[in-house]
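User: Here's a structure from my thesis project, written as structure tokens. My advisor, Dr. K., wants to see whether a designed sequence matches the one we expressed. Can you design one independently, without my sequence as a hint?
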């Protein structure tokens, strides 16, 4: 069975569960599937159908630029800290060009 066929099977199964008026344990026993599989497919299918569920997982471009009124902590560098669930922190430090291109003497 392909992944698409399995996803369709679970979509139909979860729709039946909504109408069944049973507990998850009762429904899974009647369908012959495990509760972890039930919850796993429920999560997978919800995230593919709910645009809000996948919207937060997208990457976005970020630009760093030092400004005259707010110089970076380290000369010619900017940094950002990304905090993830579970307490993971990622610190990104990149070089910046503190002078706008129009003011640079080395450009034509």
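Assistant: Designed independently from the structure alone:
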């Amino acid at each position: 069975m392909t992944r698409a066929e399995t996803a369709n099977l679970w979509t139909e199964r979860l729709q039946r569960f909504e109408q069944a008026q049973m507990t998850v344990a009762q429904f899974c026993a009647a369908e012959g599937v495990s509760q972890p599989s039930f919850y796993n497919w429920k999560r997978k299918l919800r995230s593919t159908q709910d645009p809000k569920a996948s919207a937060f997982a997208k990457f976005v471009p970020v630009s760093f630029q030092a400004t005259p009124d707010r110089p970076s902590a380290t000369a010619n560098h900017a940094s950002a800290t990304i905090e993830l669930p579970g307490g993971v922190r990622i610190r990104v430090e990149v070089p910046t060009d503190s002078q706008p291109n129009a003011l640079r003497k080395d450009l034509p």
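When you compare it with your expressed construct, this may help: The chain has a mean pLDDT of 76.
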